[in-house]
Amino acid sequence: MPSTNAGNSSAGNHAAGNAGATHPNGKARIPIKKVKRVHGHREEIPLQAYRDAGVNVNRGWNTLVTPDEVEEASDAWDARGILHDVDTQWGALPGGGAYEESNDYYASGIYDFY
Length: 114
Hints:
Elements lengths: L29 E2 L3 H5 L7 H6 L11 E2 L1 H21 L27
Antiparallel strand pairs: 1-2
């Protein structure tokens, strides 16, 4: 579960759980817009996943994040994708509804899963 540090000077973003942690490029913080390239991800992690992980993304794609925050956002994105698969019964119910607290899914572009 993400931990927060209200006194953090990075405008409310999480404190690094591993103070010496750096991104693959050696920097402690990088803008979200560079995460895909620096970490070698196939896809961009959506801003909503950073929000779900508790990261203050008021600066949008220019928000500086720690390696821990990238991992938390990636985990949040993965979890949402799993819930999507279950709720849509792996595509059999495209609009969702397989469980009581179902989400509604919209056209592509709205926090896409794939």
